C-alpha cells in the first residue's frame, strides 16, 4: 500500500473537521450534507443508530437531530491514515462527542470515526462513514436518538 500523500491526508482531515463543525452548528443541512457523496453510506449501527444508504437517508436522520438537540460539541483528534490506493483515502480519528437535547437530556460518547473519501469535481467527499465506540455507550444516546 502506498503512503497517503500529505495533501490528501490534509484534505481528508479537513473533511472530518468540517463534519464536526457542521454537526455542532445544528443548522444549515446543505452545508452539512456537502461533505458526502450522493450515494454515501453512513453506518452508525455499532452505536445503536441506523445504517443510512445515501444522502437522503442521512438528511432525514440529521433533520431529527438538528430539531431535537440544543447543543453539540465534538472534539476530534488522533487522525490516522488507514489506506491509500491512489484514488481512495481512508482515515480514522478519535472523537469525544457531547450533546444536550431540548428536553434536557445529555449525552457524551468516545468513538472512532472512519471515513472513506474520494476526490470529486467539487473537492474531497466522504463516500462511507462509520462510527465505532471506543468506550461503553451511555443509555442516554438511545433515549435521545434511538427512535430514528
TrEMBL record:
Keyword set includes Protein transport: no
Record keywords: Isomerase
Keyword Ribonucleoprotein (UniProt): no
Residues covered by the SnoaL-like domain: 9-129
This protein's name: Ketosteroid isomerase homolog
Domain of life: Bacteria
One GO MF term attached to the UniProt entry: isomerase activity
Species per Swiss-Prot/TrEMBL record: Altererythrobacter xiamenensis
